[in-house]
């Protein structure tokens, strides 16, 4: 079930990106970020009132860094926006995935942020190689020139993993839904600061008008659902597998959306996505085979 939820998170991320893109076109990058967080806070608050999330533990004093997931998430958006236009979209996607993969492997190996440690094993090596080959295919000829946008795109991927891991740690104490609410609530003031510092020339200040396309305002609701799904899946499966599963759902949903909207897609993205998906399949098959082999191994006779 958790593998499916990881794929579903990727699907929802693609839908969210499409909606947020329309919102950004209407109000600008920083104005859209504020609206997304306001909608997310209101939606999560309403869900809390109706669903009464009862999975949380009694109130306790928590480390301050557990509340930084929403702030880190805002940095992800800022990094992606900076890289946009300086390197190709395919390059941003691939470098973001590379950053996610690097951060996920370190967290799995060392068991950082209180997560379960998953040291690398031989049977997952082929899957890892295929996944990284997919990244290389997407990177091929996708950027030239300065190294700074490349570094920023890598940081974007790293912050995605850090944000979802910190949020999951918080949700262990507050409950998954309340953790999603806190994520958007802590991110909101940061987006407001960014708006007043860098977005004074955006349409949200100059000519604010409500769009008749009501659906563009729903990105914040999908953001709440995405954080909620990650709060459930992060503590249960290896971070690297979660990264590849969510990316697989995201990339192929994105391709379908491109075909529906007739925007087209690059073969590099499609081919790289296939390799990443194959890597996920091989890694999971290897884990299942190893578990099956271990269960069928004869039990030693302790009487000898």
From TrEMBL:
InterPro entries: YdcZ. The chain crosses the membrane at residues 30-52, 64-83, 89-113, 125-144, 181-198, 210-230, 242-261, 267-286. One of its GO terms (cellular component) is plasma membrane. Keywords: Membrane, Transmembrane, Transmembrane helix. The keyword Transmembrane applies. It comes from the Bacteria. The keyword Transmembrane applies. This is Transporter family-2 protein.
């Amino acid at each position: 079930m958790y593998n499916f939820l990881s794929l579903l998170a990727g699907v929802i991320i693609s839908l969210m990106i499409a909606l947020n893109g329309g919102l950004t076109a209407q109000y600008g990058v920083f104005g859209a970020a504020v609206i997304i967080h306001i909608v997310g806070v209101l939606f999560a608050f309403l869900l809390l009132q109706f669903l009464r999330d009862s999975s949380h533990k009694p109130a306790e004093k928590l480390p301050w860094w557990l509340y930084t997931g929403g702030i880190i998430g805002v940095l992800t958006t800022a990094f992606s926006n900076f890289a946009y236009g300086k390197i190709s979209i395919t390059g941003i996607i691939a470098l973001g995935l590379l950053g996610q993969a690097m951060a996920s492997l370190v967290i799995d190996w060392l068991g950082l942020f209180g997560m379960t440690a998953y040291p690398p094993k031989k049977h997952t090596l082929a899957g890892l190689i295929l996944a990284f080959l997919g990244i290389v295919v997407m990177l091929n000829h996708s950027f030239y020139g300065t190294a700074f946008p490349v570094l920023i795109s890598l940081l974007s991927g790293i912050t995605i993993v850090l944000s979802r891991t910190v949020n999951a740690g918080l949700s262990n104490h507050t409950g998954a839904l309340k953790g999603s609410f806190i994520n958007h609530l802590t991110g909101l003031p940061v987006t407001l600061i960014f708006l007043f510092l860098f977005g004074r020339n955006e349409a949200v200040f100059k000519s604010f008008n409500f769009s008749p396309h009501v659906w563009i305002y729903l990105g914040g609701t999908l953001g709440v659902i995405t954080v909620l799904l990650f709060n459930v899946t992060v503590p249960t499966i290896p971070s690297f597998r979660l990264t590849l599963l969510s990316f697989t759902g995201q990339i192929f949903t994105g391709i379908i959306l491109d075909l529906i909207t007739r925007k087209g897609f690059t073969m590099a993205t499609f081919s790289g996505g296939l390799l990443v998906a194959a890597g996920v399949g091989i890694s999971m098959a290897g884990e299942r085979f190893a578990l099956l082999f271990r269960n069928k191994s004869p039990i030693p006779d302790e009487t000898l």
